[in-house]
Design brief:
By secondary structure, the chain is α/β, with parallel strands linked by helices. It is 36% helix and 17% strand. It has one domain: Carbamate kinase (3-Layer(aba) Sandwich), CATH 3.40.1160. It has a nine-stranded mixed β-sheet, sandwiched between helices. The longest helix has 25 residues. It is globular. It binds adenosine-5'-diphosphate (ADP) and uridine-5'-diphosphate. Adenosine-5'-diphosphate (ADP) binds next to loops.
């Protein structure tokens, strides 16, 4: 069983696939999935995306650097939205970020992160990497290494990593296990190369799971056979 996990969630986990904004039913689902895991005392850090609000690459009318800053602010909006609903449902949560100074957001301090986990808090890392031209997958890789996670779990809308995008190709074949070298060489676009490369450098395993399948997060944390695992060798 994993004891400390960085969970990367795409913004669409908050809205539903292909939707924008927030869907309270999806957030209640997320809370239930997290609760089932927190019962076991697993420490959970969350990196949240912003695909339900803004993706830099979709705002073609804007300069890329501005569009990406708006995207990063979207992750801050999602983090605050989640913090409030998590707490209303009994999940103690702290939001940390380097990109904004707001009364409900704390700066990232490594010593404090351990204290938050020891006190039973969920930690949401908002604001991506703080740099345009990156994604929240790369932020997830960095935060996983920084918080000394056992594994980075990417909760997404596909059941794992395939030889090609399963949303576009019906005959795509799923891998149960892959090495980082394979994932990078085969250009499997489930995560960006930067994220794979950081995880390869620091031996941070990645597990990609279908977050919309009930119970999958707990299965993943219990190290049951679910999704696709990416390992050093
Ligand atoms: N080789 C692949 N295996 C699995 N999914 C892939 C692959 N290539 C591309 N994808 C796509 O990558 C997406 C990654 O999901 P996610 O990061 O959660 O969403 P998004 O990038 O749309 O915000 C999936 O929806 C899937 O369709
Ligand atoms: O380090 C980062 C992380 C995110 N973003 C911006 O924030 C948006 C939302 O993040 P992402 O696309 O990773 O969200 P997801 O698809 O996972 O919901 C991106 O499109 C980028 O515009 C960025 O510029 N730098």
């Amino acid at each position: 069983m994993y004891k400390r996990v960085l969970l990367k969630l795409s913004g669409e986990v908050l809205s539903g696939e292909g939707e924008k904004g927030f869907n309270i039913d999806k957030i209640i689902y997320l809370i239930n999935e997290l609760n089932s895991v927190l019962e076991y005392g697993t420490n959970i850090g969350i990196v949240i995306g912003a695909g339900n609000l803004f993706r830099g690459r979709e705002m073609k009318e804007l300069s890329p650097t501005i569009a990406d800053q708006i995207g990063m602010l979207g992750t801050v909006i999602n983090a605050l939205y989640l913090k409030d609903l998590f707490e209303k449902h009994g999940l103690r949560t702290v939001v940390v970020s380097q990109v904004t100074s707001l009364p409900s957001i704390r700066p990232i301090h490594y010593d404090d992160i351990n204290l938050y986990f020891d006190a039973g808090y969920l930690v949401i890392f908002a604001g991506g990497t703080s740099n345009p031209f990156f994604t929240t997958d790369t932020a997830a890789a960095l935060r996983a290494v920084e918080m000394k996670a056992d594994i980075l779990i990417k909760g997404t809308k596909v059941s794992g990593i395939f030889d090609k995008d399963p949303k576009k190709f019906e005959d795509a074949i799923k891998f149960d296990k892959l090495t980082f070298d394979d994932a990078i060489e085969k250009e499997l676009k489930i995560m960006d190369t930067e994220a794979f490369s950081i995880c390869r450098r620091y031996n941070m395993k990645i597990l990609v799971i279908d977050f919309f399948k009930k119970g999958n997060l707990l299965r993943a944390i219990r190290e049951e056979n679910v999704g696709t695992l990416v390992v050093p060798k």
